[in-house]
Amino acid sequence: MSNDQLVYWKAINELLTGRLYEKNCLVLEILCNQKMSLEDFFNLPAIDMKAIFKLSDTVIESIQGIIAQIPSLAFEVESLYKQGIEMIALNDQAYPGNIKKLLKKHAPMLLYVKGDKALLNEKIAAVVGSRDVSEKGILFTRNVTGKCVGNSFVISSGYARGVDKIALETALENDGKSIAVIPQGILTFKSDLKKLYARIIEGRVLVMSAFPPNAPWTVGRAMERNKYIYGLAERIYVAETGSNGGTWSGAVEGLKAKQDIFVRCAEQGEKCANNKLIALGAVPVDMNGETISNMNIPLEGEAQLEARLPEILKTLENTEMSTKQVIETFGLVNITSNLLAQKLKQMPSISVATKNQRLVFGIKKDGVYEQMSFM
Hints:
single chain; 375 residues; alpha/beta; 3 domains; nine-stranded mixed beta sheet; 14% strand; disordered C terminus
């Protein structure tokens, strides 16, 4: 894709008012349904934008403000290109298919990469875990990473302290390749880029960011980054996790999306939540990443609810239910009505109504989104 086109992708992605899925839907409408280029769209009179695309006055005003910034955006894109940083738009063949398939309307509109972008569409395994990892977790990380490299997998990691960096280093020690998915803009990663420069030039490391080039590191971006690490991968190995944080939330979301999540079976006395994750449906594996058969960890309390949540939400798409009906239908014997109601109310997709003097829960109707596909 030419830099001229990427300027408009960057404009919509970084400057346009609205949520990501709304922007993705707009781009889909422009390119696929209206058969227009993004540049032609920006050159439309406001009256035509409103008539053809049903845009609000707020969005149109945002677009009008962006037009004046196109020359400076073009300069930014050219500057990135000269620094060896490529932009991959959602409709580019180089865009990782696994992320598009998994995240659908929430797939990043643009990815910023430095290195061999072909790595994005090779066989990828994610090796993830805690920053303060135990010796058992370190050994598992080294064993599994070496095994994955031997089976021609590229290793996806977050380049954080602990499991992430150990996985990347082990991949390189075994003559493998790795993708470092960073929680900040690629231009604010400069000091670490220098450390990886030789490996990047060799084509053995690719640095990838889903954030604007000058975006600083934040906790929120670190959490968001995890879904891209998982989204790249055909399989995910969890060395060690607590019962909250990025590794845990990424694994739970991966299980809901039916991803292959393999978790090191923790020994008695270990202070980690590995076995709780296995109880939720992850595949238990030994220190070498081999599946452990006939392992049964009973689900209790909130873990039971977490495991059944995808089925519950599917049912609520078609019918409203009270907490008592949900508990009876799904056999949630260790869950109280109050706890279930509290959990459901926390979910933005859930609607709450009062019928016959009792609360009933359903799924909000936000309209239908078509998965973006430009191929």
